[in-house]
Amino acid sequence: MITIDWLSAIHWRRIAQSGFYGMILALTACQESSTEAQERKKPLPMVTVHQAQAKTVSLTQESVGTLESIIDPTIAAEIAGRVMQVLVHPGQRVKQGQVIAILDATDVRLQLQEADTEVARIEALIRNQQKMVERNQALVDKNFISKNALDDTTTQLDALKQQLSGAKSRVAAISHNGSKHRVLAPTDGVIETQIVSNGDFVKIGDPVVKLINNSRLRAHLPFPESIAKTLKPGLPLVLTTPTASNTVKTVIRDIQPQIDINSRAVDVTADIVGQADWQPGASVTGKVITGERDRTVLVPEQSVVLRPAGEVVYTLTQTNGEARTRQRVVKTGISSDGQIEILQGLQAGEWVVVDGAGFLTDDTQVQIQESQTNTKTEHTPS
Prior knowledge:
This protein is α+β, with helices and mostly antiparallel strands. Helix content is 29%, strand content 37%.
C-alpha cells in the first residue's frame, strides 16, 4: 500500500492550481493583444474639411407675400343693348383690340338715322334763310327796307348754322357709339371670368368679362414691424415665385404707412415687369438686403453640430502625422446660401470638419478624403 503525506498532497494541489491560473492569464493576455490589434486595424472615420473664411455678409430679411396684377380691367359695355355673341371664354388669351363680344346695334342705327334727318332739315332751313338774307341785302342797298330787317335775317341764319353744328356733333357721337357695339380688349391678357352670355341685355357700364394681364405685377410682402425702421424705398429686393424658375431682382417701391393690427406687419410693395411665367395671385418670396457686416467668419452649415455643450465645430490638428479633431464650442449668427456665421469660438483660417462632423467626438483620429488631402491638409494647422 502506498501512502502520501498530507502535506505533500497540499503542495501538489497548489502547484496544479497555479498552473491552471497561469494558463487563464496567458489566454486573457492573448485576447487583449488580439483586441488591440483589431482596434489598430479598424478604419478611421473619413471626413472632409473646409477652411473658415472671413467675408462680407449681407444682412437680409425674408417674407412670403402675394402677387397682384396692376393691369386687371373689368371690361364693361359702353352702350346699352342685347348681347348678340360672346367670342371668348375663360382662360383664353386675347390681344389688344381683339373683339370680345358683339352687342345689338339696332337702337344706335335708329338714333343715327334720326340725327341725320335733323341735320338735313337744318341744312334746308339754312339754304332758305341764306336766300332771305341775300334778298334783304339787295333791298337795303336800294333803300327799300331798313338795315334792321337785314340784321334780323342774318341773326336767324347764324342761329341755324349753330344748330347745324350741334346736329352734326350729335351724328358724330352716335356714329362713335355705334362702333362700340363691338366690345374690344383694351390690352393683351387672359380672360379670367365671362360675366354675360348670349341674349343678356346690358346697360352702359355693365361688366362683360374680366381680363388678367401679367405684364406688370405688384408684390405685397408683409415684414415685421420690428424692422420697419430699416426698410425704405429703393432697397434691393430679390423675388422668387413657385410658378417660375427665374429670380427677379428689383427694389422696394413703397411701404404702406399703416401697420396691420392683426399681424403687426408693414406692407412692402415692389413691381415686376415683363415676366411671362409669373402669375397674379401666386405666392412670392422676397428677400431684402438691410445692411452688410464686414470680416465675418463663415463655415458650411453642416460643420456646426449640436452637442451637450451647445453648438460646436470640430477643428483639425496634426500630431505625429495623425489628423485629430478638437471640439470647439461656438456661437453662431445668420445663415445664408449654405454658410453660417461664427460670432465666437473660431478664427478665420482654421480648418473645420464638414462631412462626418455629426459622428465625431473630441480627440478623434480621422482620415481626410483623398480628393482633399493634397489641397487642404498641407495647410492644416498643427
